[in-house]
Write a structure and sequence with these properties.
The protein is α+β, with helices and mostly antiparallel strands and about 1000 residues long. It is about 50% helix and about 20% strand. Strands 1, 2, 3, 4, 5, 6, 7, 8 and 9 form a nine-stranded antiparallel sheet that branches. An eight-stranded mixed barrel has the order 27-28-30-31-32-33-34-35, surrounded by four helices. It starts with 13 loop residues before the first helix and ends with a helix.
């Protein structure tokens, strides 16, 4: 059948067939082009949305990470302040023997492990001094308080000083660190030092390896400055793996990696396990270069080189293209990249693209068939195609294609069906879109509902009238109330009635500004206060109207309790519970401010316990602590609530008496304090009686300045001690003059040492049987160029207190031994007696100095007699005995000076390796007028003979005294009866006079 035989009513000829085929081909090409453009546009939109989603995830990650980091920085800063105040600014000067167990190891280190196992300390022996002796003990006590709290937030907590002292919890570092380790070379110390951290801020270290913990860590380091000088750091370590594990992403299709400003990867799904197994040397920084893809490595270098804070980009890894959003963590100088496979984001579009192109391939097949069919086949095919399309469309196949439209009957019918199909498709697409949007909204609402229900914070939702409509399980758990208790109740009823004063302000803020945020106490069924961080915010509709309010309460009880404990450590004494030095100074400042207004007066008492050191040394430090505690309790009971009682350190106390405006009232309180303290105190099986020396100053009369007032009270206390102790003394101007004189003498002493203004005088020791000189006692004299001779009574105590006595004493030893050598060369008795000060006796270099002097001067060791007082030996008896034995090994003679006037024990005396007892002049001067002195002197001489000790009597001035001493077998005497102290030039004349007296 040919084309010409087709019915003419169809209006089809060869030209129309060609035109139809040509139009169909053009439409096919145009459709394919439009589809390609549409798919490209959709692909760009999807990629943009995925980048936005990654940015949102990155923001959430950074916000959560920063919240943790800032919380840890705040805790570390607070702990640093406590350490600085407790151990440096308000350091308790421990006058007692240190109770901490110190181990002096053979490797030249000192180590101390706390008995409770919480901490340990380390110090090179070369840096050991009284300051660090106190620091071992005080830091151990402080770490007992703060380390349990801090090790919950950090892996560890430590203090390191510039002298290589470390106190750390847990104790591993201090117990395992090598003795020659220099902390100044460690990365966590150098970053906080003044040269690298002039702003004196808390700093984070890069990730480095700790070969004692065997972990990769980053450290939060806070510098410690005392009086403007860098003294060390406090630090806490965070283990890298734990820090990274604590921030997983909620979307399972998303991953993240972390790198630092050096371009080193700190966390990556493929590297995390390798980083944990990697080991290094101490202070070695983490290196991961070359372990990631080249494209990711190039992306990391781009971020570091440009200094960008945010970057959205793509990279290739494992032959997969990934979308990534990179953000900077400013506090740590880290970068976090949240990424996702590009194929995952575009999977749905790829499927649609395949279907779309499959459809156009089908069109291409149909056009090809038209080219190879005859006219009748073309007509039948159109009809058949239309029938098939209608049939499939009727079965729900809405994407079934319809034949092209022609201007004939079939074309009209086809056009009608096509229009109908398009309308139906639009309707179905609209319905499908609404169904999808509804499902998405339901999923979003369900996620939000689950998030609220399982939130770690208590949540309450109220309507626009502030009536509660919903509370989550966490709020029910925190409050202890049932759900029905809240429903319909006012929103602010969740706040405790103890915070009633805040309710009006909160309500006003919510109604005026629509939101409120702050710390408050949650209402609790058991009346147990729960501190929460409460946030109340409105929920707005599309028209910006408020439909409801949401309140979120996060439990911060632990933070509040930590703050309370730190304040307790910062302002109150841990032993007695009294105010400490910091709190006392703060109260004094307030009192001074009130006094300046002219309507307020107060008295300041400054006192310590007499003979407290003796009790500590004899009964032990535990008894001393118990004594301080009982004294503190008595003071709290007897003084008024408005008075401030403080322990400033050791056995030093201070009291601020408010409203005291005259000395008579202050004197009454002083007597009450002395009476209270002087009552017997039971310490175990011993009962002791103590007293107090009290210095009193009146404010604002004595001084309008805080430091000056404290100085006046201190001067008055020392005057009370000078008056015999167990008394009180008011400040007056004469005390200031005495203090100025003391300062003048101290300054002039330093000049006198440089200019050698001292001279030795020598008082002979004579055998009264033969009038023969057997030795001399060397006595120092100070000849000031303008003031003349200054009495040793004035300058010796000041030299002792300032430590200048050591330098002066060394000069005396050299000069006296040279004098003895000159006597030996003249063929005369050359025994020389030299008084040692307490500081000289305790000096570890004393033995080496004496040995050097004996060698240089070539005098016999037996001719050198070292004189010590009883009080110098009775502090730590065992240490004193060891020191005496060391001196005896040199061959020198030892004597106890002023015997009978100090606190002595015969049981100790027999253990002291001494050779001579010197009877004090106070017993000799009243012989023969005072029979008691005669009995005491006779007893001392007899006791010395029983102990095989030689005896020298001081202060002999009369012949009656000589006769008494001879009758009691004491023949070596010293005093004005024979000669006063003489300059060396006068010694030859002494020998002449004694020779004449012997002849007569």
């Amino acid at each position: 059948m040919g084309y010409s035989r087709l019915p003419s009513r169809f209006g089809i000829n060869s030209l129309s067939i060609k035109l139809s085929i040509l139009i169909s081909a053009i439409c096919l090409i145009a459709g394919i082009s439009a589809a390609v453009l549409m798919l490209k546009s959709e692909r760009k939109q999807l990629i943009y949305e995925e980048h936005d989603a990654l940015k949102h995830a990155s923001n959430s990650f950074i916000t959560q990470f920063n919240r943790v980091i800032h919380n840890k920085e705040a805790i570390a800063q607070k702990a640093n302040q406590v350490v600085k105040k407790q151990l440096f600014e308000f350091e308790i000067i421990n006058k007692e023997r240190d109770r901490t167990e110190l181990s002096f190891a053979s490797d030249s280190s000192i180590r101390s492990a706390a008995p409770d196992g919480l901490s340990a300390a380390f110090l090179p022996q070369v840096s050991f001094n009284p300051h660090y002796k106190n620091l071992f003990h005080n830091s151990e006590v402080l770490w007992q308080q703060v380390s349990p709290t801090l090790t919950e937030e950090f892996f560890n907590f430590y203090l390191i000083t510039v002298d290589n002292f470390i106190r750390i919890s847990p104790p591993n570092w201090a117990l395992q660190v090598e003795a020659d380790h220099k902390f100044a070379d460690d990365i966590f110390f150098t970053l906080a030092a003044e040269d690298n951290n002039p702003a004196r801020e808390a700093v984070w270290t890069p990730v480095y390896y700790d070969d004692i913990w065997h972990k990769w860590v980053t450290s939060l380091i806070v510098p410690v400055y005392h009086k403007g000088e860098f003294v060390g750091v406090t630090g806490s370590d965070l283990e890298l793996s734990n820090l990274i594990k604590s921030f997983p992403l909620s979307d399972i299709e998303q991953q993240f990696f972390v790198f630092d400003q050096r371009g080193q990867i700190l966390a990556h799904p493929k590297l995390n396990e390798g980083i944990l197994l990697q080991e290094g040397k101490m202070n070695e920084l983490l290196k991961t270069s070359g372990k990631i893809s080249e494209e990711l490595d190039a992306l990391v270098k781009t971020v570091n080189s440009t200094g960008l804070n945010e970057l959205a980009d793509e990279f290739l890894e494992d032959d997969e293209l990934h979308l990534v959003n990179i953000r900077k963590i400013n506090s740590l100088n880290w970068y976090v990249g949240v990424y996702k496979k590009r194929s995952t984001a575009l999977s749905a579009l790829d499927e649609l693209e395949i279907k779309f192109f499959g459809l156009f391939i089908l069109y291409a097949v149909l056009v090809a068939l038209l080219l190879h069919q005859a006219l009748f086949q073309l007509v039948l095919k159109r009809i058949y195609t239309l029938v098939q399309a209608v049939s499939h469309f009727g079965k729900g196949q809405l994407d079934t294609p319809f034949p092209e439209v022609n201007k004939d009957e079939i074309g009209s019918l086809n056009s009608a069906f096509q229009v109908m199909a398009l309308d139906i498709n639009k309707l179905v697409d609209g319905l499908n879109q609404r169904i999808i949007e509804k499902e998405q909204a339901e999923k979003s609402a369900n996620r939000l509902s689950k998030a609220v229900e399982f939130s770690g914070s208590g949540v309450a939702i109220a309507n626009a009238n502030f009536e509660i409509e919903y509370v989550n399980p966490k709020l029910i758990e925190m409050s202890g109330f049932e759900n029905d208790h809240f429903l319909g109740a006012p929103l602010l009823s969740i706040i405790s009635s103890d915070m009633q004063i805040l309710l009006d302000d909160i309500d006003l803020d919510i109604r005026s500004r629509h939101h409120w945020r702050g710390d408050t106490v949650l209402k609790n069924k058991e009346n147990h206060p729960i501190w929460v961080s409460l946030s109340v915010s409105p929920i707005r509709e599309l028209d910006n109207s408020i439909s409801s309010y949401v309140a979120s309460a996060q439990d911060i009880s632990f933070v509040k309790e930590s703050q309370r404990k730190m304040e307790q450590l910062a302002y109150f004494d841990t032993l007695t519970g009294l105010a400490n030095r910091a709190f006392f100074r703060m109260q004094l400042r307030k009192s001074m401010a009130l006094a300046e207004r002219g309507h307020y007066a107060f008295a300041l008492f400054y006192f310590d316990l007499d003979e407290f050191k003796r009790i500590n040394d004899t009964l032990g430090h535990d008894a001393g602590d118990q004594l301080l505690l009982q004294v503190a309790n008595r003071l709290k009971q007897r003084l008024r609530a408005e008075d401030t009682v403080a322990r400033l350190g050791g056995d030093e106390f201070a009291v601020l008496l408010s409203g005291i405006d005259d000395k008579s009232k202050a004197a009454e309180v002083a007597m009450i304090i002395q009476e209270t303290i002087s009552q017997p105190i039971k310490l175990g099986s011993n009962e002791v009686i103590i007293s107090a020396s009290i210095g009193i100053t009146m404010a604002p009369d004595d001084s309008p300045e805080e430091d000056q007032l404290l100085k006046h009270a201190d001067l008055a206390m020392y005057e009370a001690k000078a008056k015999g102790r167990n008394t009180y003394h008011f400040y007056n101007q004469e005390l200031n003059a005495a203090a100025k004189e003391r300062l003048m003498i101290e300054n002039e002493l330093r000049i006198a040492i440089k200019e050698q203004q001292f001279e030795l005088y020598y008082q002979p020791q004579v055998d009264c049987r033969t009038n023969e000189v057997v030795g001399f006692e060397a006595l120092i004299r100070w000849f000031h160029p303008t003031q003349g001779m200054i009495s040793p009574v004035k300058f010796i105590p000041i030299a002792e207190a300032t430590g200048l006595i050591v330098e002066i004493g060394e000069w005396v030893l050299w000069e006296a031994c040279r004098f003895a050598k000159r006597l030996e060369e003249q063929g005369r008795g050359n025994n020389i007696s030299i008084n040692l000060s307490a500081r000289q006796f305790k000096d570890s270099n004393l033995k080496a100095l004496l040995s050097r002097i004996l060698v240089k001067t070539s005098i016999s060791a037996q001719s050198l007699h070292l004189e010590l007082t009883e009080s110098m030996l009775m502090g730590d008896v065992e240490v004193a005995i060891n020191q005496l034995l060391e001196l005896k090994m040199l061959g020198v003679s030892l004597s106890i000076d002023d015997f009978g006037t100090g606190y002595s024990s015969l049981s100790y005396l027999k253990r002291f390796p001494v050779d001579i007892l010197k009877v004090d002049r106070s017993f000799v001067k009243d012989i023969p007028a005072d029979s008691n002195d005669m009995e005491i002197t006779a007893a001392i001489i007899a006791m010395a003979q029983k102990l095989n000790l030689n005896v020298v009597a001081e202060g002999v001035e009369t012949s009656e005294q000589i006769t008494f001493l001879k009758n009691n077998n004491c023949y070596i005497v010293q005093g004005y009866f024979f000669s006063p102290p003489l300059a060396e030039a006068q010694v030859p004349e002494l020998y002449k006079q004694l020779a004449l007296k012997a002849i007569c």
